[in-house]
Amino acid sequence: MAPMMMMKAEMSMDAAVGAAPMPMGRAFAANGGGGGGGGGMPPPPEIRIRKAFPETWIFTELNEHDDKTELVQMVPDTITSWIINAFQIISSDGLGVTKSSSKLTVFRPFFIVLSVPYSVIQGEVFTLKVLVHNYLGHPVGARVTLENPDDAFTLAIGEEGILTKTIDSIPSPSVAVVTFVISPTKIGDLVLSLKAVASTNEAGDGVTQPLIVKPPGVKQSKTDAVFVNLLKSSNKIVRKTLSATFPEHRVPGGDIVKFTVIGDIIGGAIINLESLIQLPSGCGEQNMINFVPDLVVLDYLKSIGSLTTFVKTKAVSYLEVGYQRELTFKRFDSSFSAFGNTDADGSTWLTAFVVRSFIGAKRYISIDDAVLISSLDFLIRQQSDNGSFVENGYIHDLVLQGGGGGSTYALTAFTLLTFVEAKSLPSLQDKENPRNYGGIVKPASVEMTAYALLTYLIREGDELKDSIEIGHWLLKQRNDQGGFISTQDTVVGLTALAGLAKATSTPNYNVKVKLLLPAGVTRTIDIGADDVGTLQEYFLPAGLTSVTFEAEGVGTALAQLSWIYYTMKTGNNSAFSLEIDVQPKDKNRLLHFVICTAYKQGDKSNMAILEVNIPTGYGFEQDELIDLKKDVAIKRTELENSDSKLNIYFNSLTAKTTCVTVTAHRIHFVAKHSKSSVSVYDYYDTTQRVTKLYDGAEVDPCQICELDDSCKAHKCV
User: Among 115, 211, 453, 605, which has the minimal tally of Cβ within 10 Å of its Cβ?
Assistant: First the structure.
């Protein structure tokens, strides 16, 4: 066995930039020079733009036979210290670990750092803060220039045209700040590009940093797909039209329509393994959505001889992370549940699901047999005298876990299959078998149809007419990432589609797709055997909402139209009640939320999630969320989008009103806030979703000018 070495470099937590004091530099329109000028000044320095700022730099596996290994890497652009560790596994000596970490410091004597929100809404006004660091050993002035070549933003409050500001003098070592009060005018990924030059021309720095600019309102995404079957019609041209439908009242300028085509019908899922469902995945079952599809993809690609090193490495890495994460939901009795030991009981269904998945994963990653054996022992203890299996754990969705009405037939069959698969492993062959006796929710509809497809694939053999029809329906239910709605339906749905993809694969694959666009314009997309798994896309021009295409050749393909729009109308689904009270505190430095909700369509809901999006420039403090977990109804909280989005998990919600109190802190100065949203929804049936928009802090642009002399010099005096 060749030695295997892992190397990892990650950012030091004690390497925070700006340990020196931060006096405010006086910023004004750059019509004059800064300090340090004079005759004989050198020409301005050539500035290298820094744009690579990863949080983890090196995480590399090396298989080497030599005693010495050399790894050459380009250092990222972050001004910080990197901590480097390594360990080695070798068959003769076992595990070796570095005695101490190595530290690599990346530094410049003169550099800038940008401070911007995670995202902003089109039309909002915010302060772009630029921190200018001077470690040259003597005071210097500085010129800071903000580039805006595409007019992607305007400068607010009378600053039109002022894109360069100067600082008179920055002591050394110290930091000074200049700000630009700007308002984005274009939607999408805005690139902020700034340069700073010392007034002595002896040093300079440049930085580009992306900023997400969203339309106002609530995002809605839709898809429509068609399965193109050219297996037995090599001389036939298939002509299809896909159309996007939009509501009359929506946010202007926010529409995106995209046509995609791929030869492999599960290729989209392979590309988007990390985002198959557009829901949080913070509990034991939901975590499996990042685990099981990897097995489906690996097995499918391996079976047709198309498993590339890149895809295998990507999928295996997700398996390893998913395995370790799932172990955090393993309980003291070796069962698994949605929230681990914080739940009253372990789940028979989830434990069987996890064990079956882990058994499959042993083909690709290391799985501890002790975990499997102890969990199988737990399952045996759940078997009744009549041979059936009982569910003592909390059932989040009856439809997906064995049918409603308390039936145990499906649960028993599902659990017995786990023991059947355990027999395939030598280490588990001595495990005694347990006794063996003999208006639908949309995710359940997907799952049942997927099982039907698997059945038809077995029964039909080479005659795939009905299987293709069923597969066509399944493909139309997918989201734009290639997954479905929830966890189990995505797992079973992808398994069925992988079976269909294998059944319809052909060694003579060659498909040509021609887009027929207005004014006689055409665009041809060729799909050959070598790129059958490559997703090819075309964004429709603004205003075009449908596309007609012709396909010819030999093989199958999936053509899909995806569209996104934003709306200020949130509908009136009556599944939940939702009330939001927001009170600004301490001159808008804090936003105090009281959010109340209840279930209105029965005794209790399935697992429910309360999603709180807060106004631009505000964030939640992780430490302050600890008190939320003291509420027995709340099982978990998680933050996203740089702490600007909070997901709160409930086992269920009842007709009794549940209220949550949280506080957000201002991190960036923002004015003209757009409305933000709060949603509550059933995780397993997202049609039961209520969303409301609310107004946060009312901040005038003049109120954020307190940091900016040039801003105050105009309309805000």
Answer: 115
